[in-house]
Amino acid sequence: PQDFVGRLKFLGPSLVLVGSVVGSGEIILTTRLGSLVGFSMLWFVLISCWSKNIVQAELGRFTISSGEPFLHAFNRLPGKLPAFKGKKVSWYIYFWFIWIIPDLLAGGGIYGGAGQAIHSAFPSLGSEWWTIILAATACIIVLSGTYRFLEKFLTILVVTFTFITVTCAVLLQLTDYAITWEEMRGGLTFGFPAIAIVAALAMYGGTGVGSGEQMAYTYWCVEKGYARFAGPADDSDDWIRRARGWIQVMQTDVKLTLILLTCATVPFYMLGAGVLYRLNTQPDGLETISVLSNMYTQTLGEWAFWLFLVGAFFVLYSTAVSGLGAGVRIFADGMAVLGLIERNDYPTRVRILRIWAVVTPIITAGAYFYFQNPVWMLTIGQLF
After folding, report:
1. Strand 88-90 vs strand 80-82: parallel, antiparallel, or unpaired?
2. Which of helix, strand or coil describes residue 299?
3. Global pTM?
């Protein structure tokens, strides 16, 4: 593509990424932080949204230039440890493998939140059973869907929940909970209440383009074809021109991520600080979704309860589907990096991908079935 309009036609990984990023961190962890400290940490929310896209763009640039996704790139780090079939891998690969455990715990919180949203609408079935149904559905979507299908599916969800959230935050100004300029200025004074340290760090891990999402972005860039279009790296002027062109496409994609993240994250914090903080209520346990619904019902009326449920479900379920789609790709590639399978053994890679697409939802749904506290599960998982 030679111009901005041409580049727009090749965007897509950012929408899949935002489907994964904007979810539990925003609707649960960001609003919880707002309910604890009011507007005093707005600056920290903005840093969380804006600080990580630089790393995201650089990882994307490396992937396009080399054709290597995240795990292969970080396997270049010094500090080699024994792996399988005589291979040695960077210590970071084992760190990633251990990190899967808290990541699955956080995933249980995401599925559980979505399950609570449906339970609020259809209480005849407990939220833990809805969570199992949603996990099975996500498994089916990932196993049957191609990247193109996921891209279109998540685009619809992203646009829908972003529109609902921004609209609600704007309408907040027409109620008794309207946000004042003094409160906004107070949120930019770099205050950090000690009571909010754990909640703030969990929010930072759960919002914006965190480690897991940056990792996933390199794989979505590969599937979108950016590296393939640039071609194998060499010193020719043609390759440099192609690589720079596709890096520009990727950077436009990253900017879109930044805009969507900000539009979807800041309104959630505003609603948490503007409504829940004033009501002195915090989301927790089985009451997580019902408490969060106050952000809508207290400002727009009881009818907005259903609007919130639809938005909450789209936010959380898009995260579950996108996260599962990325997670199975990363896991299969990790097995190749560790030497358990050959890197170019595509049939075995697909088989591992499908197995992990079944195992992951079972573990995450089982975790929520046992703990039944999305806030606690997400806080612990995102702190890691």
Report:
1. antiparallel
2. helix
3. 0.84
